[in-house]
Amino acid sequence: LLNISKGTTYRLENSKKDIVTIKIGKEKIGEGNIFIRGGKMYVEIVKLGEEGENK
């Protein structure tokens, strides 16, 4: 899905502090919280599918 490699910078559009929007194409499919553990970045999915849609 997303290949993240060391030294690469990604722009997180329309993001709030420590929260990312998960999209496929232009369709929002969820949201996740960003956290770092042991020097590695993770995204915990907190909303997925219909509950992640803006209505």
TrEMBL record:
Keywords: Cell projection, Cilium, Flagellum
Gene3D superfamilies documented for this protein: SpoA-like (2.30.330.10)
Lineage: superkingdom: Bacteria
UniProt cross-references to InterPro entries, sorted A to Z: SpoA-like_sf
Protein name, as recorded: Flagellar motor switch protein
